[in-house]
Design a protein that fits this description.
single chain; 89 residues; mainly beta; 17% strand
């Protein structure tokens, strides 16, 4: 198995921080550190900072949306092929 990146979640957190720098990644979960997640899709979410906070304005975060879910007992699904073509702009 190759290297993996593990972003430690912020446990029991349902709000984003007011501070952040563009490019920051943050994992939030409403669960506690030792609490099992019994939901079907998982409750953790990944957020990306798209505008830094400057003391006057709060940071702006965008949730990363995933296009599929998989586990170790089946092959991963093919990526969707219905995305619009990329345009310069």
């Amino acid at each position: 198995m190759r290297d993996e990146i593990n972003i430690q979640p912020n446990y029991k957190q349902s709000t984003l921080p007011c501070e952040g720098n563009v490019g920051d990644l943050l994992v939030l979960t409403p669960l506690g550190a030792e609490e099992l997640d019994h939901s079907t899709q998982g409750l953790a979410s990944l957020w990306f900072c798209i505008r830094a906070g400057d003391g006057k304005h709060q940071a702006v975060w965008a949730r990363v949306q995933f296009d599929g879910v998989a586990s170790c007992d089946a092959p991963i699904p093919d990526p969707p092929q219905n995305r619009p073509p990329l345009k310069r702009g």
